[in-house]
Structures are given as C-alpha cells and as structure tokens.
Write a structure and sequence with these properties.
heterodimer; A: mainly alpha; 70% helix; globular; B: mainly alpha; two-stranded antiparallel ribbon; 2 strands
Chain lengths: 563, 573
C-alpha cells in the first residue's frame, strides 16, 4: 500500500470537500482561506506526484506504487490503484495543471459567485482525473471516470462565460449529457469484459492479452469501449459537445477540460482497450484510425474559417486528438508512444492557448480573432508583448514545429500508422499508409490555420494582407471599452470600479501598476511553466518516451511475440 | 374509515392463519416465532394502538404516545431482524420435520432467508422515515394535535408495513396473495386521509387500481394453482394434462400484471402521478418506497422463486416492461413542473431500472444474481427517493402552495437553505447515478451487469438512453438549487430577506446578481452574510424534530452507501 498514491487522491478530493464544508470558507471573508487551502492542496499534490516520480515507476513492469484493498466484493471490484510509466506523465501533468488553475482562479479574475465552489469543483476534477489515471480496476476506473462530470458541469454552468447565460447552460447540458451517455456505453463494454473474463483487475486482464474472451465478445466489447471513450476524446463525429463547452467554460475550466479530461478518453483506450481485448481492438482499429484522420481534416477546415479564438483552439483540440486516435489505432509501440506523447503535449499547448484566449476574452469581452488586430502598428504583439508572446509559443508548438512539444507525438503517431500491421488489423498496408499520408497533410492544415492567427497577431493583417477594415477596428474599439492608448486608463472605468470589468484579473483592476492589456503577474506565473513545458519535451523527447516505453511494450506484449 | 380499519388491522394475522391453515391438515407443528418477529412487531403495535385508542377514546390526550407505539413497533421489528442472520429459518412447513433450517425438498409457507431479511429491513427502515415525515407535519390530518387521524394514519401504516414484511417471507401463493393485499389496501385509506376532493380522487383511483390489480393477481394464482395443483411457489407443473404449461404461463403473466400495478410499471402506471399528487407528501413517500418494495418482492417471489426455470421466457417480459417503463417515466418527468409530480414520474422511471436486472435471468442459474441485482438497485432507489421526499415534505411546510409547490420553489435554495439544498442535491445525484452519489452509480452498474452478461443489446441501448434522460431529469431540478434568484439589495432590511423563497420567478432568464459598487476588491458586501445567518436561524426553527431526524437518516443512508457501495452490490450479505 503506497501512501503516496493514497495522498495523491485524498489531498485534492479531501480539500474540495473541506473548502465546501468549512463554515469559515463561506462568503467574502472566506476567500483568503479558500485560496490558502486550494493552492496548498494543489502544491502538495504536485509535490506528491514528483515524489512518486523519484520512485521511478517506469523502471519495471512490476508495480512500484500500488494500492490494492477490497472494495465492492459483490462486483468483484477491488480498490486497485497503480502508478506506472503510462500513468506517470499524465499524473504529473494533471497535478501541475490543477495547481495552475487554482492559482489562476484564486488570484486572478473574480466571479460574483466567489471562488469557493469553483475551487472545490476544480480540485474535485483534479482528484477524479488522478483517480482515473491510476485506476487498475475496471469498476474503479469507471467510477473515477464519472467523478469529473458533475464538477465540470458546474464549472461551465456557473462560472462560465458571464456574457452568455443561455450559451453557458446549453454548453454545460450538452457536455454532461454527451459524456454521461458515453460513460454508460463504456460501462456496458466494461461489464461485458467482466462477464466474459470473470475479473475486473486490469493487471490480470493485460497479462492474459484477451485469452479466454471469445472473438465476437472481444469485438463487441472493443466497439462499446471505444465508442464510450471516443465521446470523451473526442473522436469525430462525437466531438460536437467540445467547441461549445470550451467557448462557454472559464479559462480554468477550459484548461482542465483540454489538458486533463480529454486525456482520460485516450488513456482509457491505451490502458483498457488495446491490451484487454486485443483481437477485438485490432478489428475495429481501421475505423478508429480513419475517424481520427477525418477529425484532423474536419477540425482543420473548421479552424480555417473560425472567427473565435476559443472555438478555434477547441477545434484544433479535435484535430490534435485525431492524431492521438490514429496513433492508438495503429496498435504499434511507436504509435502508442506517439499517442501518449501527443496527449501530454496537447495538454500543455492547449492549456497555454486557452490561457491567452481566456485572457483576451476577459479584457475585450470577446475572443473574436479581430481582437488580435489591436495594436499601434502591428498586432496584439505590440500592445501586449507578454500575452502575444505566449500566444506565439502556443501557436508554433501547436503546429508541430520540430523542437517543440507538439512535434514528436504527432510524428510518432503518423510513423506508427505507417508501420501498422496489416495482418492483425485486417486492413491492407496501403490503407494505413494512406491514413498516415493524409495525417501529414493535416499538419499542413494546422500550419495554415495557426499561421492565420500568427499573422493577425504579428502584423495586424487580415488574410489577404490588407489592413483591417473600418468595421473591424470599430469592433475592437468598442470591445476594448477604452482608448487605444495603452498606458492610459479611462477615468470612467476607475469610477465604476469592478462593475465595468468584473471579470478582469484582480491585479489588473484600475489602480494597479500593471498595464491592463498585457498579461498580469498571475497570468505570467501560470503561463511561464506552460511555455517552458511546451519547449522542454520538444528538445528532450526521450524524457517522456523513456518513461512510457517499458509499459507500452508490456501492454502490447511485445516481448511475448504477439506483435 | 372505520371499516377500512376493521379490514386492515387483522390482515397480518389473516396472512399467518392462511399459511397455517394450509398445513393444518398435516398436523400443525412448532411455529418458529422468532422467524416471524420482524413481521409480527408492527402488527402487534397496530393492535395495541387500536385497543388503547378504543379505550382512551379518539379525542382524548396528545398524540405523542400514539407516535411512540407506532415507532416502537417498527424499531422492534428492525431489532428482531438482527438475531435471524445466518441460516435461513422456515416455518409453516408441509413436512412436520421442519422447524429450524430449510431444505429444498420441504415446502414451507414462510421462510426467513437472507432475501426475506434484506427486504424486511428495507421495508421497516423506509416505514420509520415515512412515519417521522408524517409525524413532523405541522397540520392535520397526518399530524397535529387531533388524535383521530393520527391513530388511523399510524394504524394503516403499521398494517401496510406488516403486510410487506410478511410478503417478504411468503413462500406460498396464499400467503403471498393475502400479504400483498395487506400491503395494498390500507394504503388507500392513507391516501384518502386528506379529506378533500383531491384526496378522495386519489383514493378512488388507487382503490380501483388495487381492486383490478388484486383481481388479476388472484386470477393468475388460480391458473397457476390449477396447473400445478399446489399453492407452493416452486411447485412443478403437473404432468396430468398436456397443455398445463400454457396455463401456468398465462397464470404467471396475469399475476405479474397484477403486481405491475403496484410497482407502477408502464402500462400499469396511470394511477401513479395523480395519486402521488393527491396524497399528503409523506404518504406519497410511503407509496414510492414501502409499496414499491412490496411490489418488487412479489415479482421476485412469483418469477424468481416461483418459476426460475421459465427465466428465458419471463426475462423478455421483464425486459420489455423495464424498457417501456423507464423511457416513459423519464420522458414525462422531464416535463413536470411540480416537485411531487416530478418525483412521481421519477419513481415510474426508477421502477423500470429496478425490474431491468430481471431481464438478465435468461437461464435458471442466472436468476439469483438477477434478483439480487434488482434488490440492490431497489435499496439505492429507496434510500435516495426517501431523502428527496424528505426535503420535499420539509419545504412544503413553509411554502404557500404546500405539497403542490412548483420546481421554482427550489431556485437558489443553496443560498437560502444550504443544508436542505445539499441534502436534496446529493439525493438527486444518487438518483441520477453521478458521483459524488456513488451509491446510484454503483446501483446502475449492478443493474446493468446481468443484462450485459445476457447480451441483451437492444435493452442496454434503451438503458443508455435512459441514463442520459435521467441525468437530464435530475439535473434540471438540481440546477435550480444553485440558480440565481432576484436577490434583495443587501442594504435592504433583513425582513425582506426572510420572505419564503417560493414566490421567486423562474430563474432561467435571470442574469447575474450584480456585483455591488463597493466590491472593487472582489469582496461581497458583509450584509449578505448576516441576512443569510438570520435566514438560517429562521430555517432551523422551521424544521420540526422528526423531519430533522428523517433528513439526517436519509442523507446518512446516502452517504454511507456511497462510501461503502459494497452493500448495494450485495444487499443480501
């Protein structure tokens, strides 16, 4: 029984409960207490996850960090938690993002509802995600998978876009109905595996590699499991809940949604489908791969015409997750490694992009791409060098430039698809190679739409190189609510205080020493680690790849000669 | 009313007599009274209540001793369950050698098996909470100082409970039929206790339904008896005539149809919403829990114990009923505007989930697992529904519309009455099957397990749809708890803040509570906190002690079962 693993779950979930239940945390006077509890819980979780890394969980396939106690004997389920090379990067990512979002909401923009419920929800999402990434029992995995639903629904529903009440409600409802439906389908698949194999323990299931589960049952189980998880990933055409959810969610919610929640789906595929029902998965994988590639194109084309930065980033998420789906579908060690790498990279990069998009929306009331045109001579970069700089790093990393985090995952995923085994998957080699080639074309699309953003940002130009038209400038001016002179603060805004800009970061309120149209200290504190993390894995890809490699080989039973 | 009493009170004893009459011919043997304890306790309490009331007179004295007698009866029943754990005990057996222990060859009229005990605990606990809810009511007819309705209410409640307890142990059709009726008829009296037009209408609807349902059940039992030549549940079909199997099947189908009224399975559900809405809310809670437990008990006995070999046939019937019931229930619940009606349709939908696992009993050896799963789901359903009803009952006390209060009465409840809102929120999450209501989630896992194992994919597709619908139903209500309401200005006098929340307009189009001008530092004005505190004090006095206990018991049940979901997965353990 590993204390670290228990702490990893108990600290965020317990703190969420504490924040909700402590009478002293109520009301405006409780805000400092909420901040203290939230930030220290986030920090302790990061610390615990890093301590767990020092035990080198990837060094052997035997569980270094494990909890295994009886839980629901009636279902044969045990509270079995495990940290290995596949979970470790995601656990650290979740812990880091969890800390960053708590810092962001407790020190940054304030909501009229106060931050107590928001912090509790964010910590609950973090705890649920950590439980999902460490679960080694099918039933535990399912319960953990569901834990994040209600808190995330609440985050979107009540702390989302303050300008659009109806949109928030619709997005939250759509989010929870889609994902709850997906979860039940997942549950059906899990129950089918349990009924056919007689065990809920994933370690036992992985070591069996599907032995004892008949071919048709494997196929049905694989279809159900993939269908359920595909809603979460999301794989085209089940992605329709994602763009509205991201648009409506607050920045912190978007970061957790993109950085953590989507990963639960792809992680589930790697851990609970590929090794558990390998034959069934191999039969379905061509469809998964094809849908992934369709998603890459579909979302890429949508991004080319999307006018709202938040929606654009959300659609680009669908495209990136398409690469992850393709990598997983290939069923090769390289593909899986690439998928896991792309998972982490996408979590970091998208979080950075959402941080900037959310910041722009808080300032100008809209994340319309036209706000990027703001600036004296050039684009936003001139006016807000720090925000602009973060956006540049995010965009370049997102388009998969070698040397940045986005490159290796997608490269390996495509390479994996190129190498996919035509015999076991039942699809000809030409099919897989076509998919790989199309995916490469998809990266070109990604370059196109992200460069479109960069052009506005950098040069303050529209697509055709023309200067912004008068209506564009008008919109910007009105959204800005202040004269375009950056250093100047409108006295009217000072008078009306927070009423005029209640959603601005607190340290950018009138009277602050900081220029309110560039990144605030909190945004810098949150953004800087993300910028560093967008670069480091790109320069040192072996850090991540070495972590996941033994576990991936184990999952695919490479050493047993199955692949 | 007195007639109803005269009929209802001796019913449990009749049930026992019927069972003993069955075996009297072969020489009466030793009766295992300890095994009968849980069922006898409420029946004895009912008789004591009736006798003392006859002596003291209906209008004499306060109500407290009546409450005490009724509560003692229920708690004694719960206590008497405790020593019965372990080996099953049978009594009223066909073979004189029986007494302690039970074997497959001996046909007994009453068996205290783990199945029996689990259902009895469920019935008695639910009855305790329903009694608390009724006793805590501020106004007559189900509470208050006037003695007569109180006596009648307790008497009828105890009789129903005793009937449901006997039903759990019944293992022959005679005992089953009489116990089933004992658990049904007094409820009509309970519903009609509200002496107005709505109460009468609700009572009449229930009466007609009960009569029809009993007729079907008895006809079914008669056909089964004709085909087997024995009243014992598991008696094999006689080989004397060739077509008796068909007769047996038709008999079972009719019996199930009769029972389906009680469980409000679609298409036998039509009485449910009007009756729930017409009855006092605590009685509606009683209908939704104790009556449903009785209904499921009867189904499990008739199908699971009585005809496990026919599982392949009746599992389809159960699946069809479950699919239609949950879909109709959820779809209509989605459109309801008042809390009680929403809960009424929710109980219809949940009844579908309760029956769903029986669809997995496609081979005889899968029957026990399917029945256990049904009871596990029932356990979670009863606890969550009672908790939700407890909040509805408490809120109805202060709401101008009483039991008929609309869903809008829950707008912003988390701010005005946080404890109440938290309890309701948790119960709704349990019903929806979403964490932190782990209890409900595990119940869904338990219910779907047998169906998936039986590869009934069409049914699972319907179930998936209904999980989504259910989430929509319960979150539609739950979201109101946090919804913003048009708030009083914090500077206004506290008196305005004390107005009941009920009159609030629908919140859907209400925007943010504006952050007042002084809040440049992001802080809310201090006035809100004080007015909240004043409101809190007000609320504490508004909840009567029995209601408080009922709420605590309900939420404790939800939390404990969510932390230890093992009990939901194995309710007989």
């Amino acid at each position: 029984m590993s204390v670290l693993l228990v702490l990893l779950l108990v600290v965020p979930l317990g703190s969420a409960l504490l924040v909700l239940l402590l009478p002293a945390a109520r009301g405006p006077r409780g805000e400092p207490l909420v901040r203290t509890i939230g930030v220290s819980a986030g920090a302790v979780t990061v610390l615990v996850s890093l301590l767990a890394l020092t035990r080198r969980p990837w060094s052997s396939t035997d569980a270094v960090l494990e909890v295994d106690v009886p839980w629901i004997p009636g279902l044969g389920a045990r509270m079995h938690l495990l940290l290995d090379g596949i979970s470790a990067p995601l656990v650290v990512l979740t812990a880091v993002l969890g800390l960053l979002v708590v810092v962001l909401v407790t020190s940054g923009a304030s909501s009229p509802r106060g931050s107590r419920g928001l912090v509790a929800c964010l910590l609950a999402v973090e705890g649920g995600a950590l439980a999902t990434f460490t679960a080694a029992d099918l039933i535990v995995f399912f319960v953990a998978f569901e834990v994040v639903l209600v808190p995330m629904w609440a985050v979107i529903r009540w702390w989302g876009d303050p300008h659009d009440e109806r949109g928030r409600r619709d997005a939250a409802t759509r989010f929870i109905l889609f994902t709850a439906g997906g979860s039940v389908v997942l549950l059906l698949g899990l129950l089918l595996v349990v009924a056919a194999s007689g065990t809920t323990d994933v370690v036992a299931l992985v070591s069996r590699q599907g032995d004892g589960i008949s071919q048709p049952v494997q196929l049905t189980a694989a279809v159900l499991l993939l269908l359920g998880l595909a809603v979460k990933v999301p794989v085209w055409p089940l992605h329709t809940w994602l763009p509205p959810a991201h648009t409506a969610a607050p920045t912190a919610g978007s970061i957790l949604l993109a950085g953590v929640l989507l990963k639960m789906g792809s992680y589930g595929m790697v851990r609970f489908v590929v090794p558990v029902v390998p034959d069934g998965f191999a039969r379905v994988s061509p469809v998964l791969g094809a849908l992934g590639v369709v998603g890459i194109f579909w979302a890429g084309l949508a991004c080319l015409v999307e006018r709202d930065l938040k929606r654009l980033v959300a659609f680009s998420s669908v495209a990136h997750m398409g690469f992850v789906a393709l990598g997983i579908a290939s069923g090769t060690p390289q593909g899986l490694q690439g998928a896991l790498f792309a998972n982490v990279a996408h979590g970091i990069i998208t979080s950075l992009l959402f941080l900037v998009a959310g910041g722009l929306k808080a300032r100008y009331g809209s994340a319309d791409l036209r706000v990027l045109l703001i600036g004296a001579g050039g684009g936003l970069r001139d006016r807000s060098p720090r925000l602009g700089g973060m956006l540049v790093v995010g965009c370049i990393a997102g388009l998969g430039l070698p040397g940045l985090a986005g490159f290796w995952g997608e490269f390996l995923a495509v390479y994996g698809a190129w190498q996919a085994d035509p015999v076991s998957t039942g699809a000809p080699q030409g099919f897989w190679r076509t998919l790989a080639a199309l995916a490469v074309l998809g990266t070109v699309l990604a370059s196109a739409y992200l460069l479109r953003v960069l052009r506005r940002l950098w040069h303050g130009e529209l697509e055709d190189g023309a200067a912004p038209t008068e209506p564009d400038v008008e919109l910007v001016r009105s959204a800005q609510g202040a004269p375009s002179d950056a250093a100047h603060v409108d006295p009217a805004m000072l008078e009306s205080g927070a009423r005029a800009a209640p959603h601005l970061p607190r340290d950018l309120r009138p009277g602050s020493r900081w220029r309110r149209d560039d990144a605030s200290p909190v945004e810098v504190v949150v953004g800087l680690p993300l910028v560093v993390l967008s670069i480091v894995p790109g320069l040192l890809p072996w850090l991540l790849l070495a972590t996941t490699e033994p576990a991936v080989r184990h999952l695919l039973a490479v050493d047993r000669g199955f692949v | 009313m007195i007639t109803a009493l005269a009929v209802a009170a001796p019913m449990p004893l009749l049930a026992l007599q019927a069972a003993s009459a069955d075996v009297a011919r072969q020489g009466v043997q030793h009766v295992a009274w300890t095994a009968l304890g849980p069922a006898l306790a409420p029946a004895v309490a009912a008789l004591v209540l009736l006798a003392v009331d006859a002596v003291v007179g209906p209008r004499r004295g306060g109500g407290w001793w009546r409450d005490a007698v009724a509560m003692t009866g229920l708690l004694a029943g719960l206590l008497l369950v405790a020593p019965l754990g372990g080996e099953a005990r049978a009594t009223f057996c066909a073979s004189p050698s029986s007494g302690e222990g039970v074997s497959a060859n001996v046909a007994c009229g009453y068996v205290a098996s783990p199945l029996t005990l689990a259902l009895q605990v469920l019935v008695l606990s639910a009855a305790v909470i329903c009694l608390l809810l009724a006793v805590g009511q501020r106004h007559a007819p189900t509470g208050g100082s006037s003695g007569a309705p109180r006596t009648e209410h307790h008497l009828l409640l105890l009789a129903t409970t005793a009937g449901a307890c006997v039903l759990a142990g019944a293992r022959d059709y005679a005992t089953l039929a009489v116990a089933f009726e004992t658990a049904s008829l007094p409820v009509i009296g309970l519903v009609a206790l509200r002496r107005d037009g709505r109460g009468a209408e609700a009572g009449l609807k229930l009466l007609l339904t009960a009569v029809l349902s009993f007729a079907l059940l008895v006809l079914g039992i008669a056909l089964v008896y004709a085909s087997t030549g024995s009243l014992h549940l598991a008696a094999p079909v006689s080989a004397a005539l060739p077509d008796l199997d068909l007769l047996h099947g038709v008999g079972l189908a009719l019996a199930v149809a009769g029972i389906a009224f009680k469980l409000s399975l679609v298409p036998f559900h039509a009485w449910t919403p009007d009756t729930y809405a017409g009855a006092p809310a605590p009685i509606a809670a009683f209908l939704a829990t104790v009556s449903k437990v009785a209904g499921l008990t009867a189904i499990v006995l008739v199908l699971g114990v009585g005809a496990p070999d026919l599982g392949p046939s009746w599992s389809r019937l159960a699946g069809a009923l479950a699919a239609v019931t949950m879909t109709v229930g959820n779809l209509v619940a989605l459109r309801q505007r008042t809390a009680v009606r929403l809960l009424a349709w929710s109980t219809v939908a949940q009844a579908g989930w309760v029956v769903l696992p029986l669809a997995g009993a496609v081979t005889p050896h899968r029957v026990p697992a399917a029945a256990t799963a049904s009871i596990g789901y029932l356990l979670a359903y009863v606890v969550a529904t009672l908790t939700a009803f407890a909040v509805v009952v408490v809120l109805a006390q202060t709401h101008p519309d009483g039991d008929r209060h609309p869903l809008a009465a829950y707008d912003g409840l988390l701010r005005t009455r946080p404890a109440l809102a938290a309890v309701l929120g948790f119960a709704l999450l349990c019903l929806a099957g979403l964490p932190p209501g782990v209890m409900g989630l595990v119940a869904k896992v338990v219910a779907l397990g047998p169906v998936v194992a039986a590869h009934a994919w069409v049914l699972t597709a319907v179930a998936v749809l209904n999980v989504v619908l259910g989430v929509a139903v319960y979150l539609r209500w739950g979201a109101r708890l946090v919804a913003s309401v048009p708030d009083v200005e914090p500077s206004a006098e506290p008196a305005t803040a004390r107005q009941p929340v009920g009159g609030a307009t629908p919140s859907d189009d209400v925007s943010w509570v504006p952050n007042p001008a002084g809040a440049a530092g992001g802080s809310l004005p201090g006035g809100t906190a004080t007015s909240e505190r004043a409101l809190g004090a007000d609320v504490r006095t508004a909840i009567s002690v029995p209601h408080g206990v009922a709420l605590l018991l309900g939420i404790a049940g939800c939390v404990v079962l969510s932390l230890l979901p093992a009990l939901v997965a194995n309710p007989l353990g």
